[in-house]
Amino acid sequence: MASYEDWNRIDDEDDEELQDSSWYEGKKDVILFAIDCSESMHEPRDDPEYEDVKTCHVLRALEAAMQIQKRKVIVGPSDSVGIMMFNTTRRNDATDQGSEIKKGNFVFQAISTINSPKVQELIQLIDTARQEPDFLRETFPPLQGSRVPMGDVFTSCNWIMRDGAPKTATKRVFLITNEDNPHSVPGGDRLLTSARTTLIDLTQAGIVVEPFFISSEEKPFDVSRFYSSVLLPTNLVEDDEEDGTLLPEAVSITRMEDLLSQMRFREVPKRALFSIPFELAENFVIGVKGYGLVTEQKKGSYKYFVDLGDRMEVAESRTVYSYQGGKQVDRSKIVYGMGLGEVVGGDKTEDHVDDQGGVTRTTSANSRVFYTADEMKSFRTLGLEPKIKLLGFKSRKELKFEHNVKHSFFIYPDEMTYSGSKRTFSALLKTMIKKKRIALALALTRRNASPVFCTLVPQAEKSEEGGWNEPAGFHLVPLPYADDMRATPDQCLNAARAPDELKDKARQFVEKLTVKNGSYPPDSYPNPALAFHNAQLEASAFREEFDPENFEDLTLPTYESLHKRAGHLIKDWKQALLEDESATLVVEPPAGSRRKAEFLKSKGEPVAGNKAVLVDRVGSWFDTHI
Amino acid sequence: MTERAGYTVTMFLVDVSPSTGKLREVDVPLPNGEVQIVEMTNLEWALQYVKLKVQEMIYNGRKTDQCGVILFGTQETSNIVNRKDGGYEHVYEFVPIGTPTAATIAKINSICPAEEIGDPVDALIVGVETQDRYLGNKKTWTRKIVMLTDGENPIELEDWEVAIDKMNDLKIKLTVVSQPSRGIDFDDADFGYKEEDKSTIKRANEEFFHTFVDRLDPDLGIVGNCAFAIEEVSRPEVKQTKSALMANVLRLGDVENHPEEAIEIVVKTSKCTAFARPKSFKKFARLGDEDEDIIMRNTDDDVDELTANYGQLSMQTQYVYDPSGAHEDDDGEVKEEEPEQKKELVEIDKEDLVRGYKYGSSYVPVPDGNFPKLETKKGIEICGFFPEKNLRPELSMGEVHYVWADPASPLQQVAMSSIAEAMYVRLLVAIARWVTKDGAEPKMGILKPETHGTVAYFTWVQMPFADDIRKYTFPSLDKLFNHKGEVVTKHPYIATDEQMSAMDDFVDALDLMDAGEKDEEEDRKPWYDITLSYNPAIHRVKQALFHAAIVQDLNRQPLPPPHPELLKYFNAPRKVVKRARGAIEAARTAFNVKEVPKRVVRGRRDGHVRARDDGDDALLLDKQPNKRIKLSKTQSQVLSRTQADASAKSQQKNVTDDSETEPEDDEQDLLLNQKFKGSSRPSSPTDEDRLPTPSQTPVPNDDGRAPGRIIGTVAPLTDFNKNIAHGDLVTKAVEDLAFVIRTVVLRPFSASRVDEMLECMQALRKVCLEEDEIDAWNEFLPDLRRACLDDDPGNEFFWTKLAALGRSVSLISKSEAAQQGGKSDISDADAEQLYSTFVPSRTVLVN
């Protein structure tokens, strides 16, 4: 099978369309976990998964941080993570990076690119904490009787970010606390003001605070007591809320159990792939941004290394162009044209084949027979400017499953380029949902892409369990061109059909195995090949043995329940099938090695071996197939 | 029998008799739609057709797609029939049969009208013989002959019936193309061409060719005119590709542990859609000109060169490393760009390299190139079923595949049909895991049953894994809350009833369901038919490639505009737009969308989005809950002004990169802008209504002092004055204030503090002058200048403001220093000049 590298290679560097996801790697993401270590965060609680095991909020927050680190290290290996604890008496050593940090705050892990020692340090801490209930309280002793001002927490975050985060990175603080009113003491107003001010400083430095507020039955979290006056409104109104209260509880406030999944939603910073006009009609244009919500996640990047004995040195690859392996050609000198065709039988093409068999085209000195790079680009775009152009509306029934070639994009209005975009977009969306319409549009999403016809599928806003809100917007589904459609193979188009009795029997097991309200659940199917690769990568980074036995492929059918539910029905169906007259039409096992080999080949079986082997294989095929 | 692609020999028989040298005027369309008239000979025009056909063969790149060119009317004679039996004079085998290359085109370009009169029938017989000799007993090859003649010369009518018998025997397809020229074209009813004043010879010849073609077996012969033939060559056409059938097994249940309860159906899969890309261009460079050095060459030398030679380039990938070990930092963006230095790099074979996968900041070497692969078993495993109506089109990830029951086994067909049809009637689809062969990586997808005439089958599309889904959060479009938690129902973001009704009409008016062609029952079909929609990029690129390959100068014969067929779906159908005109106009008016003016300011990448100085009342409800909501008539106007600043940033970004890929924090920036605005407004009504800024409300707890500094960023001037009053740490205070000014000025959003910083500058200079810290000031100022103007991010705006103050904040000169009893190396002229040499290089947003 082709190695990963082979099928991941981009054939033609001019072909920008394949490089959709390149920008993901381009921009770095920095996350600083700020974990509250106050008394109640340390309080022992029953572990929701294991009986007789105690855990606490701090431990679970650290576990979530560890999970994010482990995922980040593979998904965004250039990203950086740090961990700061607050409301703890532990101080950083004078030599530490965090030595000048505000009192009550402790830098557990300074911001740096994630690496395996860092992840392992955290894993070991968590392991110890699981075994020794008091370990965390000893490691991060809670402040007694008072709380550190939130302003100090934000300032500390600012300093830590300043010291560790690259300038151009996206910078976020994941704030984890269960205290909804940290400054209920006298003088609290002043502390609130300071918190607000320092948070503004933080935001000015390009740092976004993503709060994860822990709510529990005995200690519900009321944002209006403190945070609603402190946090920047975007943090609060970003997300929709169903029941009409002030704050989006589902997202900002979470049960400890959901902390990880909440963090997973925010694991990758939201980035738009394109920001272009959406032309509804002539002189009726709004602004939209496009996002890739469905994109194939590939294996991580790799480099080549030279083993120099004492050290490994990176080998850079570079691509050079030359004629006949001669001098490298400067890129600005390259022009483009039709391939000159393969030289078949060099003697026939005479003077145009030079000594080494190279192919040239000779023109008069002042004439032009090649195109420049810019001209080539214009051939692909047909001179269009990037935009989405609405062509009209169709019935939703026109949406065909088989009309697909590429993944979709998601578009959302952009008020910043056209004022009025939101109301127009929203009205269009609702009207199309009401009328069960889809739209046909012509889209050029980027200047170096090619125009493509798309279906716009409206999606209504919807809240789901687990705090995930399906946003309102359009899915932009690219349609195939006639050039992309393949013919149906003639030999398959005349086939025997099943009698009704057999269809009935099939219907019985099909129905037994149907999830009535089901749909395709992406979350249930982590990519097994990717996970297998990553597990080995992680083991290798941790210098651990990888045990494939422990690896579980979640994409395999759940055989046990399948057979329990429908095994007998399938058996009935098989019985009926073999009694069907078509069974007698089965091609007899062919005679002669060659015919046997052809038979096996037609069944996708191996054809190597002598006649006896083939006879055996034909026999066993009939044993195992129906 | 369907024709095999390739396995064809096409003979071009080209008439070069003197009559073909007549000039004619040809309309050459330009890309801008205008038409240019170019004079060319009949022969030249006819050869365009030959070249386009040959080019198509080169484009398809099949070795078994071959051709040869035979001329008739040449002075010399060279052909196999003449060599064997004599006769057949003035027929010349010009390009021997072979797979064509660009050299073939070049050779065709050299064909000129000759001196003798050639006989088409002679040429035909030579063509048939040459082709037959070449193909020998390759019976399955397709034989084609294309004859190009102006039909102006007499034909000797002998042997032609023998030729016909032979051509029928060999199933040769003959195309006779007449060279169009005013007055000598063959009639072509399809092209609407009927020539009135033809010569008698031509008329006779035309009759002859029609008779000739009629005598050929059905579908073997055709007579056409060249103008039409050439247009047809550039018409987009899709060659229906049939995908290879791949063997696989459709499985339900555990075959190993429950064989009697599990199903295996032998299937074949093939592609239903396959994303087609434009053919790539090849790279060329003018030979002898590859090097940059040669640019320096005196251009006069070129005058002597009559030809230019372009070579097709090949690509090599080299692997190099730096043995000195000074390899590049991964965080290249943090450090300054170093001038490119020629490093001694060593090239190394790929085989000697070890692959290392990135794990965080480190790489994990994988000696064998890859980790062991997940063991998988070939097959399409059904995992379960669910209702088709719950399918989500946006999850489909790519190309569609067909799954057919084994065409050789009725039993497999019946088995497949029973399951597919059971699902079909129940409107169900299946979740299925697809492995193309043992050990291949599994893909998840959906099997959808289809019944079509005599067959029941599945289509399959890949669905995303958990890893492939990104769950971004987006603000609600219509649920806006004010800070008190009250739902806002009237807002510029929310469409009014009137707007909703306008949209309702708009959607109805632009309906495409009956805007297409009529079907057999005279009912209008929906507009836009995928099977007639050609990928414009593919066909335009192809057209461009062909054109450049066959013309001898793009400046003389520029690429014609795209074939109209390519653009037919680019605009909504005219009658729909006409019908919808009223509804469109109403919606346009009702929604009143305004483009936010683009302003060229430095983008956020540069670090500075200026807060506006005047107190704007703009409120974005979902962004500014602390404010009372004002809904006034001017709101939307104000709104757009507000957004200008923010959009300017993205615009700036768009200049360098046409797609917006920034993280989504500009809304926060925007908000912050406003907060600053609100808070710095002296007229803020109440304290509650006001968000404090650091500069206005220094909080004892946090003075913004960096570690080790005695001046903070929050109230630097106060800190500074306090320290100077104490008088014990003057040097430190000067140093720290300079540091703070630099920090604040280079921070984002510093615009609101410009005046404050200017004050600081003045205070600092005063103290420097009086307290003999003159050198500190004179060092600081150029440094600040550099930081403002040269660095990225800088703050040109601040420097502009500073420059406006002029001499009073410039360098401290000798004379000035002397007055205070200090020393300076700076001349008065230099001090004067510091700001005068400054010319704002970019448009700066000044309020």
From TrEMBL, chain A:
Domain Ku: start-end pairs: 351-496
A Pfam cross-reference name: Ku_C
EC number, as in UniProt: 3.6.4.12
CDD domains documented for this protein: KU70
GO molecular function, one term: damaged DNA binding
InterPro entries reported in the protein's UniProt record: DNA_bd_Ku70/Ku80, Ku70, Ku70_bridge/pillars_dom_sf, KU70_core_dom, Ku_C, Ku_N, SPOC-like_C_dom_sf, vWFA_dom_sf
Gene Ontology CC entries for this record: chromosome, telomeric region; Ku70:Ku80 complex
Compartments (UniProt record): Chromosome, Telomere; Nucleus
Region of interest (Disordered), ranges: 1-22
A GO BP entry: telomere maintenance
Signal peptide: none
Basic and acidic residues composition-biased segments: 1-10
Keywords, sorted A to Z: ATP-binding, Chromosome, DNA damage, DNA recombination, DNA repair, DNA-binding, Helicase, Hydrolase, Nucleotide-binding, Nucleus, Telomere
Protein family per UniProt: Belongs to the ku70 family.
Entry-linked PANTHER family: KU AUTOANTIGEN DNA HELICASE, X-RAY REPAIR CROSS-COMPLEMENTING PROTEIN 6
Listed name of the protein: ATP-dependent DNA helicase II subunit 1
Automatic annotation (TrEMBL), chain B:
GO MF, any single term: ATP binding
Main enzyme class: hydrolase
Cellular component GO terms, alphabetical: chromosome, telomeric region; Ku70:Ku80 complex
InterPro entries to which the protein is assigned, alphabetical: DNA_bd_Ku70/Ku80, Ku80, Ku_C_sf, Ku_N, Ku_PK_bind, SPOC-like_C_dom_sf, vWFA_dom_sf
Sequence ranges assigned to domain Ku in this UniProt record: 345-480
Pfam families on file: Ku (PF02735), Ku_N (PF03731), Ku_PK_bind (PF08785)
Region (Disordered): 322-342, 604-709
Composition skew (Acidic residues), residue ranges: 328-339, 657-669
Biased composition (Basic and acidic residues): 604-613
Subcellular location: Chromosome, Telomere; Nucleus
UniProt-listed Enzyme Commission number(s): 3.6.4.12
Polar residues bias locations: 632-654, 676-685
Predominant localisation class: nucleus
Record-level GO BP terms: DNA recombination; double-strand break repair via nonhomologous end joining; telomere maintenance
SUPFAM superfamilies: C-terminal domain of Ku80, SPOC domain-like, vWA-like
Family membership: Belongs to the ku80 family.
Name recorded for this polypeptide: ATP-dependent DNA helicase II subunit 2
